[in-house]
Design brief:
The protein is built from seven helices and 25 strands. The chain is an alpha+beta fold and 375 residues long. Among the domains are: 3-42 and 303-328 and 344-372, no CATH class; 69-217, RNA polymerase II/Efflux pump adaptor protein, barrel-sandwich hybrid domain (OB fold (Dihydrolipoamide Acetyltransferase, E2P), Beta Barrel), CATH 2.40.50. The strands form five sheets. Strands 1, 2, 3, 20, 21, 22 and 25 form a seven-stranded mixed β-sheet that branches.
Length: 375
């Protein structure tokens, strides 16, 4: 019948000295055979290596990145005549708000006046060219007409640029030029595909030029805004993988603040997520896990029931070929069923941990320590 030696604290505690390790190796264990193990009801679970460690869930809020937001503003003062979209998805070029504006009328009239003055300046300049050629016009008079033409051209360009910025198209301007009929209303359209939100006006409301009317945000990508305690923020790095709790969504850390909030002592972290499937709704609260890659460190998944506390240190019992050995662990994550732990000095042939009955083994070790300690 196989005999098992319960070794006491051979590797208990990270960073123990050589003298402490030697003393622990002489810490007499308890001899068990297969029948005793069965009688104790010991059960074993695989020591499962993992390459990623899912950290604790942190509360966060979904938002639209500032670089993906557009302000919908009134280019001229006027009265809101119609609202075509109140909220939700919009397409680039889709009508959103119709604005009736006396200022728009004045700008068009100013442009038409500038065109008329340009026409007169061009005719006077052509006449000046003929007179100069015939020797009937002085150089000074010719230069005056030339200057007047350039000023008229500049005035037209300025008036046209203003109407372009207001939002009138080339087709609309050509119709106004040919017909002379001024446009009283201006249709404000969505500048991009996105989500219309934060509408701030109502029908028949009067607004000033540049007044904010609403916002449009691209939701193909969203950020998740997390405020982390200082200790947790120190472990975060740019590009680190992050997952949404209970959802098959993963993103990457895009920003870590360089200073902590002086009141809360927390650090702001932004995580960028692809949202082409519209799985994340801006303004919603979620919980996120920061994922750590196991680089040069061994992480294992074990049942929570396998972890005991020895002198305040979390530990597990490893099933070695010839003995059961207690091993200190660093818990990186745990829930109600499983824990991810970091183990140091684990032999390759250690395949299992005690998943049921670890508390009995702890009691036997403590009893053995009392018997051999001369107390």
């Amino acid at each position: 019948m196989r005999r098992w030696i319960l070794m006491g604290a051979l590797a208990l505690g990270a960073g123990v000295s050589a003298e402490e390790a030697d003393e622990a190796s002489h810490y007499r264990g308890v001899t068990l055979n297969d029948d005793q193990i069965e009688a104790l009801g010991l059960r074993f679970a695989p020591l499962e290596p993992v390459t990623e460690v899912k950290g604790y869930a942190w509360p966060a809020m979904v938002d639209i990145p500032l670089a993906h937001r557009d302000l919908l503003a009134a280019p001229v003062g006027g009265k809101i005549r119609a609202i075509h979209v109140v909220h939700g998805e919009v397409r680039a070029g889709q009508p959103v708000i119709e604005l009736e504006s006396a200022e728009l009328v004045r700008l068009q009239q100013g442009w038409l006046n500038a065109l008329a003055q340009l026409d007169q300046a061009e005719r006077r300049f052509r006449r000046a060219q003929r007179l100069r050629k015939a020797g009937s016009l002085s150089e000074k008079q010719f230069l005056a007409e030339q200057t007047a033409l350039k000023e008229a051209q500049t005035a037209v360009k300025t008036a046209r640029s203003t109407l372009d910025m207001v939002g009138l198209t080339d087709t609309q301007l050509e119709q106004i030029r040919q017909s002379g009929q001024l446009q009283r209303t201006l249709t404000l359209t969505a500048p991009k595909d996105g989500l219309l939100f934060d509408l701030q006006v109502e029908r028949n409301q009067r607004v000033e030029a540049n007044a904010p009317l609403g916002r449009i945000g691209e939701v193909g990508e969203v950020i998740v805004d997390v405020d982390l305690p200082l200790a947790a923020a120190r472990r975060v790095r740019l590009g680190q993988k992050v997952v949404i709790a209970h959802q098959p969504l993963s993103g990457r850390v895009a920003y870590v603040a360089h200073r902590a909030d002086p009141v809360t002592q927390r650090v702001k972290v932004h995580v960028l997520f692809d949202n082409t499937q519209r799985a994340l709704l801006p303004g919603a609260f979620v919980r996120v896990h920061f994922i750590e890659q196991a680089r040069g460190v061994r992480y294992y998944r074990v049942p929570v029931s396998s972890i005991v506390s020895l002198d305040g240190t979390p530990a597990v019992f490893l099933k070695e070929p010839a003995h059961l050995e207690v091993q200190a662990v660093e818990i990186r994550y745990r829930d109600n069923q499983w824990a991810i732990v970091q183990l140091r000095g684990v032999e390759e042939d250690a395949q299992e941990v005690v998943s049921h009955g670890a508390i009995f083994l702890k009691g036997m070790m403590e009893a053995a320590e009392t018997d051999t300690g001369g107390g």
